[in-house]
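Hello forum,

I keep getting stuck at the same step: I have a sequence, I want structure tokens, and every attempt I make locally crashes halfway through. Rather than fight my setup again tonight, could one of you with a working pipeline run this one for me? It's a single chain of 109 residues.
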Amino acid sequence: MSTVLWPVTDRIAGALDTGNGTGEHETAMRLIKVMEEAGEASAAYIGMTGQNPRKGTTHNAADVADELCDVIIAAAVALHAFSAAPAAVLDAKLHTVARRLNEHREAAA
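Reply #2:
Ran it on my machine without issues. Output:
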């Protein structure tokens, strides 16, 4: 993962903390922002595949990738509200998922 993800999202979270506070409402808004961005990624995929007959093909793979980046950034910013060590939490989760994948592959072999 990018080495700048955590310093940048830390700055974003800090700016949001300063501007909007850190209460329950703000925490909820950061979580909702992740869902908003996921919806935009889904909409871009629908546009890429032309699944809306009224609109046709309106997006491409680069648009979907861009929206997915927004999801990742929003999730990383939101994670700051739930952990004092968001990078460590994500790292631990990645290792857990990798371990499960390896266990699944070994069981299937």
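Helices lie at 5-20, 24-49, 61-80, 86-108. If your local run keeps crashing, start a new thread with the error log.
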